[in-house]
Write the structure tokens for this entry.
Amino acid sequence: MNRIRNKLKELKALHEKNVTRPSLDDSVHEEKEIENVSQEITRMFHHCQKIIHQIRERSHGTTSQEYQVSQNVVSSLVSSLQELSSKFHSAQSEHLRQLRSREEKSQQFFNTTYVSKNNDSSMFDSLQDDTFTQNFLSAGDQQLMIESNTSMVEQREREIKQIVKSIAELNDIFKDLACMVADQ
């Protein structure tokens, strides 16, 4: 469980690094790292569940005192595992919320820029400087901005899908833990 705690700290640091970097940067490496750490944490949770289940199963043929001690150990482990699962779930949810918020802000910026260009034609009519209007947002610049925005949105969608997948896996772990608690 200490390894899970350490990995959660690592994951939070990766989330923060991912969210605070400039949005147009290439973050494929960071995404893969976040995905790998999330999957590793999920595997660790499954491994801990198996160990807890083994402890519970092995306690059935023991004396009443040994059985009570093993049940106390199982109860403590399940409680610790639930706490770690909650932290993992909240970290994933917070990262997802931050990504969505950042994406919305980015969309607002790009939409505002586009709307301003189309709706403020009176400003351009009053300016007779052809070089300014030609250089303001050329078709090539607009195309680059659209391509950059599209790739950024696709990247965010991949990140969000991975986080949703991790949350779904975590939900399964919560269900298993709830069954273990109910069995006690």
Remarks:
- Residues 113-137 have pLDDT under 50 and may be disordered.
- The chain has six helices and no strands.
- The helical segments are 2-20, 28-58, 64-119, 121-126, 130-136, 139-183.
- The radius of gyration is 25 Å.
